[in-house]
Specification:
The protein is an alpha/beta fold. It folds into 2 domains: about 5-125 and about 285-305, Rossmann fold; about 125-280 and about 315-330, Dihydrodipicolinate Reductase, domain 2 (2-Layer Sandwich). It has helices spanning about 15-25, 40-50, 55-60, 80-85, 100-115, 130-135, 165, 170-185, 285-295, 305-325, and strands at about 5-10, 30-35, 50-55, 70, 90-95, 120, 145-150, 190-195, 210-215, 220-225, 240-245, 245-250, 255-260, 270-275, 330. A 9-stranded mixed β-sheet has the order 14-13-12-11-7-10-9-8-15. A 6-stranded parallel β-sheet has the order 3-2-1-4-5-6, with helices on both faces. Helix 4 packs parallel to helix 5 and helix 5 runs antiparallel to helix 10. The longest helix is centred in the C-terminal third of the chain and has 20 residues, at about 305-325. The two termini are about 30 Å apart.
Length: about 325
Amino acid sequence: MPDPIRVALVGCGFQGRYHAANIAAHGRAELAVCCDIDEALATAVGDRHSAAATTDYQAVLDDATIDAVVIATTTNTHASLAIAAAAHGKHVLLEKPMALDVTECLAIEEAVATAGITMMIGYKFRFMQSAIAARHAVPEPLVLTAHTLYDYTQDTSSWVNDRSLSGGRVTSSMVHSVDLLRFLAGAEVTAVTAIGGNLAIEGLNDLDNVVATLQFDNGAVASLVHGTAGESDLLSVWSFQTAGRGVNATIHQHGRRVVIHDSSTDHPATATVDKIDDPFAAGMMELLDAFLEAIAAGGPASAGPRDGTMALLICQAIEAAVATGRSQHIESLPA
């Protein structure tokens, strides 16, 4: 694989602009082209980073000099774009959620395996200093919590509120929490229970708040709160805790800070901070770095396609638990 790795950005919206800046700044990558159905948007982002711009995704795929694509489009396009990229031998960094449903996720997995390319899913929280420190401090957690509440809003105009585009307002972001819980637990979810509903946003006609309990195959349990009931300065938008025997780690400030308490030491409390002012940027450069490293090494990436599939499977089981009022068993997937 050549160095630098030539990367095309597909989708130049909110998240795409972070990816563009990181690719352009990375020493082992070159932002070759920005692609978006909005030509003006593609041109603006391309000009900002001295990259070409296009609305023609097929031209990106046909360009033999492009090594990898970063896909940051609406969720309903993920499967078709990712499968096409794999068929053309392009490595793929795919934003979350992986797809609209598990069937699409499995189709992406098959395309990746057939093509032998590297795919990573955009679960940036795994790569934050706080998450890595928490997992190291608590290698055998017993109880975990995830707390993510956005500010209450009546704005239903965002594409995230259109289930046909995003896969559901709650699930579209809750996959982050589920993936990080799996990462911190070091185990797979076997069952979920949940309650919730359309509690805050009038006229949404979809879940906007949910409270769930997750059971892991190593015996750990987790509590997850996710929705739009209002942010808290104390808990922050992304707040997690992992607790084992005599030790716990609490991640807060949108994942940028962790406080570790170990009762066996003379100085039980320690803290580390990701020194990033913009919370949306936290973990993203590390995500890109891991993706490029996996490409260079010719090996699988973490979080990989199966991680993307499992996070969506669990979120959809949580939604089913809310809808039916019954616990949901998480079925094993074919290898």
